[in-house]
Amino acid sequence: MDKFDVFKEGKTQSYLESQQAIKSLCTYLQELITNMENMTEIQLRDSFLKLLQVSLWGNKCDLSISAGQDNSQKSSPFDSLPDLQRFILVDDSNMVWSTLVAAQGSGSSGMKHARVDIVLDNAGFELVTDLVFADFLVSAGLAKHIRFHGKSIPWFVSDVTKQDFEWTIMQTMAANHKWMSASGVQWKHFIKDGTWSYHDHSFWTLPHEFCDMAVDAADLYSTLQGSDLIFFKGDLNYRKLTGDRKWEHTVPFDQALRGFQPAPLCSLRTLKADVQVGLQPGQAEKLSSQDPDWMTNGKYAVVQFSSPHREQ
C-alpha cells in the first residue's frame, strides 16, 4: 500500500495520450545534440529559450484544473510557441540564461560544474518537457548536475512522485520510436552515473510557505543553497513562493518572496490561481478588462527570476 497511487491512471493517460508531442520533442532534442558542437552561442541561447518555453507551457497539462479529464498535449509543442509569446506576462528568460552562463566556470578537468535544481510539478507531458530541458542543459555544458525534487507521496492529482519519475524514463526508453528511446536511454544513463538525481522531502507536501523553509526544513534549505539555479515549476509552487497572499500586482517578485533566496531562482508558471506579482503598472487592469478570468484560466504564464546576488 505504501506505493499505491490513486492518481496513477490519470498520470499514465496524460503521458500516453501525448505521444505525438513527446516524439516531436525528443526528435528535436536529439537533432540538437547531434549538431551541438557546431552551434554558435546565439544558436545555443535560442535553443535554450525555446526549450524553456516548452517547459513553461507544459505546465498547462495539469489534471488538478481539468477535474482529472484529458488535458494532454496532442500536437508538437513547438508549433504554438510564436502565438503563445504574447501571453507571457513577465519574461525574465534572459536573466536566467545569463545566470547559467555565469555559473559555467571550469574546473581542472575542464568540466562545467554548475548545478541546477528543478522543483517538479506535474507528471505526464510536463515531466517529459522538464526531462528534455534538463538533458539539453547537461548536453550543452550549461550544467553538470541536475537535482529533481518531487513529492514523497501522491499529491494534488498529477504531482510527480519517484515512481512517476522512474516510470516515465522507463516508458520513454521502451518506446517504439528511435529518438524517444534514445532520449530515455540517455536519461537512464544520467541517473546511473549521478549526473541526474531525484529527491523528495516532506516539506513539499506540508502547508508551509517557502519563506519558512530555513527554519522548518533547514536541511532542505541548506541543500538548495548549493544550487546555481533553482527552477520552481507550476502554480502551487508559485503560491508558496509568494505566500498565497493578495498582493498588489505591481509588488516586485523579490519582495513577495519575503527573504526566501537560497540561490538564484526562476518560477515557470501558467496562471491558475488569483495571486500574481511583478507586473507593470496598469498591466493587470488591462488584462482584467480583456479577460476577467486571466488569473485562473491557464492561458497566461510568467518566467520570473530572483537572485540573492542581484541588487534589489
UniProtKB/TrEMBL annotation:
GO terms for cellular component: nucleus. One of its GO terms (biological process) is methylation. Residues 3-287 form the Damage-control phosphatase ARMT1-like metal-binding domain. It catalyses: beta-D-fructose 6-phosphate = dihydroxyacetone + D-glyceraldehyde 3-phosphate; beta-D-fructose 1-phosphate + H2O = D-fructose + phosphate; L-glutamyl-[protein] + S-adenosyl-L-methionine = [protein]-L-glutamate 5-O-methyl ester + S-adenosyl-L-homocysteine. Its EC number is 2.1.1.-, 3.1.3.-. GO terms for molecular function: fructose 6-phosphate aldolase activity; fructose-1-phosphatase activity; metal ion binding; protein-glutamate O-methyltransferase activity. Gene3D superfamilies: Uncharacterised protein PF01937, DUF89, domain 3. The keyword Transferase applies. Its cofactor is Mn(2+); Ni(2+). Pfam families: ARMT1-like_dom. InterPro entries: ARMT-1-like_metal-bd_sf, ARMT1, ARMT1-like_metal-bd. Keywords: Hydrolase, Manganese, Metal-binding, Methyltransferase, Nickel, S-adenosyl-L-methionine, Transferase. Subfamily III proteins have a conserved RTxK motif about 40-50 residues from the C-terminus; the threonine may be replaced by serine or cysteine. Belongs to the damage-control phosphatase family. Sugar phosphate phosphatase III subfamily. Metal-dependent phosphatase that shows phosphatase activity against several substrates, including fructose-1-phosphate and fructose-6-phosphate. Its preference for fructose-1-phosphate, a strong glycating agent that causes DNA damage rather than a canonical yeast metabolite, suggests a damage-control function in hexose phosphate metabolism. Has also been shown to have O-methyltransferase activity that methylates glutamate residues of target proteins to form gamma-glutamyl methyl ester residues. Possibly methylates PCNA, suggesting it is involved in the DNA damage response. This is Sugar phosphate phosphatase. It comes from Labeo rohita (Indian major carp). The lineage of its organism: Eukaryota, Metazoa, Chordata, Craniata, Vertebrata.
